[in-house]
Amino acid sequence: MIKRTYDWIDERLNITPLWRDIADHDVPAHVNPANRMSSFVYCFGGLTFLMIVTQILSGMFLSMYYVPDINNAWYSVQYITNEVLLGQVVRGMHFWGASLVIIMMFLHMLRVFFTGAYKAPREMNWVVGVLIFVIVLAFGFTGYLLPWDQKAYWATSVGANLANTVPLIGPYLKSLLAGGSTIGALTLTRFFAIHVFFLPAALLVLLGLHFVMIRKAGIAGPM
Amino acid sequence: MSAEDPRQKIPGVPRHRREFKALADGREPFFPNFLLKEWIAGAVFLAGFMLWVIYNPVILGPKADPTDTTFIPVPDWYFLFLFQFLKYFPGPDIILPGVVIPVIAILLMMFVPWLDRSKSRRPFRRPLATASMMLFIFMSIWLTAEAWGQHEVEIGAGVAQASSSNGLPFAVQHPTSKALLNTSMPGYTIFQQNCAGCHGSQLEGSVGPELRGIGNVATAQQLLPVVTKGFSPMMPPGGGLSDPKQLQSVVDWLAQQKQH
């Protein structure tokens, strides 16, 4: 039944080459920890992606309860933590997962750096990787404000005041970031929109490029 | 559709997989062979992660209170190195660690493939690249540790336990008259050079609080110890001034700012 359904779709859309290309490409021996345990350093990129997937999933569930409004944001996070079934766990996954994404991404970057894997023909992939790093840090910065607790508020104030120090455009940059002259209701909705719409869109595009490029150029050979 | 039977099996469809024998050079196909092994690593990693999450519940701090400036700001740990870096550049120089240096660092990072053009990929055959990255890692870890240590001390000592709305031990009313007073005093010049970057050249405040009308609520004698101590982490002791005479001039001038 499943086979016949597959064939029916495949006859019409020819989907087989799409996934066979991914399935059949050979993974070289030097990146396979099954051959040599020290190859586990090549897992960091995949684990970063795994953590990003769990971040997306836990974030989707958190957004069912979270309210991006200065009167209710803190109470909604409190509700998630104390009342919602497994809310503490899902919030914990999103909170600790954020740190883990950054740790794994940093380790992945160090592996790429110290094995010189960014050299030709993979320069563009390195640049995209650095952009992903910046996007992930922006995720961390915007997400930190959302619980609307004291820590969140005052850390964001420091960030907004830093933007203000830029010559000429500083005040504009600050109001672009904060949505006004002070950290308040507009900042929270703005950071929420950036955190759940703008940055994920940018991240998915960049990750797509990152993966397409590594398939095109292949994993760097043994040193 | 061609004249051929559309259901004719072509190589590559799932039921006609090519025979995978273990290749002599150790390569193996991504799916399913490698992915299954990778998934084991992922599953172990996730299990460890979930255990950590369950045994380390996240604590929600008190609700944000924009009027309570005594709260000592602290970013998440991965921004601590940058936060610590800010402390070494008081006053208007804060733009260096806050904006200029991070932007340069990101640009340098992006252009690594063009900066390190050596053919060799081995870390020891390209000492400059390796040494730069080691230095960066070392500095990041050191700054993070330093920031964390200082934050612990501040929390413990309750340094910023001032009570008023500006983090000062006395409340500043926001006066309607905005003109600076006694700008011929030497303290005015020193203030403009060293303090105006944060408190504003018209005392209107930016990174630091507004100081208009400070003379209404505090005397030079009261201001001196406050300025000398500074407000960690944003304002260094003495506002970055080390000369006691200069410090005295500044507080003398500030005490004259009795705008209403």
Please explain how this structure is put together.
The complex is a heterodimer of chains A (223) and B (260). With 223 residues, chain A is an all-alpha fold. Chain A has a single domain (39-217), classed as Cytochrome Bc1 Complex, Chain C. Chain A has helices spanning 2-13, 16-24, 44-62, 73-82, 87-114, 123-145, 150-164, 170-178, 185-217; one strand spanning 26-27. Chain A starts with a helix and ends in a 6-residue tail after the last helix. Chain B is mainly α and 260 residues long. Among the domains of chain B are: 77-157, Helix Hairpins; 186-255, Cytochrome Bc1 Complex, Chain D, domain 2 (Orthogonal Bundle), CATH 1.10.760. Chain B has helices at 30-55, 80-87, 95-110, 112-115, 127-157, 186-194, 196-199, 214-217, 220-229, 244-255, and one strand at 28-29. The interface between A and B is large, with 90 and 77 residues. Strand 1 of chain A pairs antiparallel with strand 1 (28-29) of chain B.
Percent in strands of chain B: under 5%
Q: Please state the CA-atom Rg of chain B, rounded to the nearest Å.
A: 30 Å
**Number of contiguous helices of chain A:** 9
CATH class placement of the domain at 77-157 in chain B: Mainly Alpha
Query: How far is the first residue's CA from the last residue's CA of chain A?
Result: 48 Å
Terminal-residue CA separation of chain B: 88 Å
Oligomer: heterodimer
What is the number of helical segments of chain B per DSSP (H or I, 4+ residues)? Answer: 10
**SSE sequence of chain A, one letter per element:** HHEHHHHHHH
Structural class of chain A: mainly alpha
Would you report the number of β strands of chain A? 1
Helical content of chain B, roughly? 40-55%
Reported by name, the CATH topology of the domain at 77-157 in chain B is Helix Hairpins
Total domain count of chain A: 1
Which CATH C-level class of chain A is it? Mainly Alpha
Largest sheet of chain B: none
- What is the structural class of chain B? mainly alpha
The fraction of residues in strands of chain A falls at under 5%
